[in-house]
């Protein structure tokens, strides 16, 4: 009987292909939107987590603003209201000589104009101490890194990521010893970094231009330190080091307007943000499926009226109210599930395109697929019930008389 | 006795006005009988057929069908499925289903397996002379052919009673004659048939005529 019900539902839907498709459009779009967004979020989450874990378990990151007090991103926008770090903060940490800390590094960040001959790029540029390369385990491919002497004297030397070097010079090995202009000042390329799959947020590390921190201050007129990184002796010391650094900074700054992020706290922060996003998505999906469901109910009601005669005939031949109810309910559910699969197919296509042609990661998990189909089926059940009941309750004599 | 009614009455209430569509009908139909129900328009023929066909229940009175007392307390759908075969004036085939599938329907609701349904439906369609039209949709069939499919469908579950409401009303006279012959053949094979008709020539070919007037049996 089950097979017959499904076959009969499919044939009823096939009899009205265009209408069935239009009816289920709400479900298709709803499922498509939800799956695509969920996949994107879970892809991004995976990506961001990979990056953070890529930093290693022995790096502390100090950011301006206090997350616990809502200063991080809250209170008028990131950065604008927050007092960034200055050299005095870096000095304070260095002078405290915390035994667990191996390297202290600060960095200036900007998007700088990079020129070579006719070519010009707007590129993420880091003013940093040589220690940064150690902290992030960057390996030199050709040439050398700048040393502390060049850093302290503000030397006009630069190290390029491999991707950037290839972009400007065609291939990385042609870049060495060439002069490029950074914001109009010429810098000599002394080294090229080996390829890495790390990212700074949206920035590909392979495309970064590195110059000494002092040079960034002097020639690019940067004075705000955006982040301080601490490399520890061992990843066992994370919490002790975190507490000590917090104490030092609080004393030197006189207030608690910064956050020391451990790799763990960064991943849990991401989890929080993604959790919020997912909740918002669930809301959107509920609304879109509600709209889709109402569409289904509407058309099913019309269809029940149109097929009054059919209902009368079936009842005369011995269909029980339950038979009729099942028949129309099955149609609604099958319609919704088909819509769900179509939406799923569209999101699989989008995911494929994103993964194939862009850097945006997208990742459809099996649980998401199951959820989408279960959701569409329940939409069919819930919104198909009223039309199916209407069909089941029809009086056979009146239904037979219907033209 | 296939049908026995006692004081069977149907009263409709239209805007507070009582319409006595059927008044104290006492009738019997024996197994193997072919009866014609006749009478002017509005005399209660369809109402009687609806009650006999278990599409509706009486306001007053009693009705036994094939030994079962028919009232609101029993499952009318199952009774219709097992004990009644309907043949309608306007055929009432499902337009989306082919001839075979239409004949299978009553068996589907009876829970017969797909294989047995197909075998039986094919047999029945051959029996009414359209074994070569199994997979035609209703709109690919002539009126007479449609009515043959409907007759095959009425026989699907071997019901003790076949009810036909003006089965030739929508047909030309030749097709009508053919349908009448099929019904008579079925009757000769022992089927019990009650047929509503306006046509006195057809009525005469039945074993017996029940004449209705204003909801009462007059002869
Ligand atoms: N559902 C109904 N509601 C009210 N009156 C009805 C209904 N069905 C039939 N009647 C009335 O009952 C009477 C008998 O009708 P019907 O059995 O259809 O007659 P026939 O089939 O002989 O033409 C008519 O007066 C008709 O108007
Ligand atoms: Mg009538």
UniProtKB/TrEMBL annotation, chain A:
InterPro entries: ABC3_permease_C, MacB_PCD, Macrolide_Exporter_MacB. One of its GO terms (cellular component) is plasma membrane. Residues 284-396 form the ABC3 transporter permease C-terminal domain. One of its GO terms (molecular function) is transmembrane transporter activity. It is a multi-pass membrane protein. It is found in: Cell membrane. The chain crosses the membrane at residues 21-41, 273-304, 325-354, 366-389. Keywords: Cell membrane, Membrane, Transmembrane, Transmembrane helix. Residues 20-247 form the MacB-like periplasmic core domain. Coiled coil: none annotated. Pfam families: FtsX (PF02687), MacB_PCD (PF12704). Belongs to the ABC-4 integral membrane protein family. PANTHER family: ABC TRANSPORTER PERMEASE YTRF, MEMBRANE COMPONENT OF TRANSPORTER-RELATED. This is Multidrug ABC transporter substrate-binding protein. It comes from candidate division WWE3 bacterium CG08_land_8_20_14_0_20_43_13.
Automatic annotation (TrEMBL), chain B:
GO terms for cellular component: membrane protein complex. GO terms for molecular function: ATP binding; ATP hydrolysis activity; transmembrane transporter activity. Coiled coil: none annotated. Residues 3-218 form the ABC transporter domain. Keywords: ATP-binding, Nucleotide-binding, Transport. Gene3D superfamilies: P-loop containing nucleotide triphosphate hydrolases (3.40.50.300). It comes from the Bacteria. Pfam families: ABC_tran (PF00005). The keyword ATP-binding applies. Belongs to the ABC transporter superfamily. This is Macrolide ABC transporter ATP-binding protein. It comes from candidate division WWE3 bacterium CG08_land_8_20_14_0_20_43_13. The lineage of its organism: Bacteria, Katanobacteria.
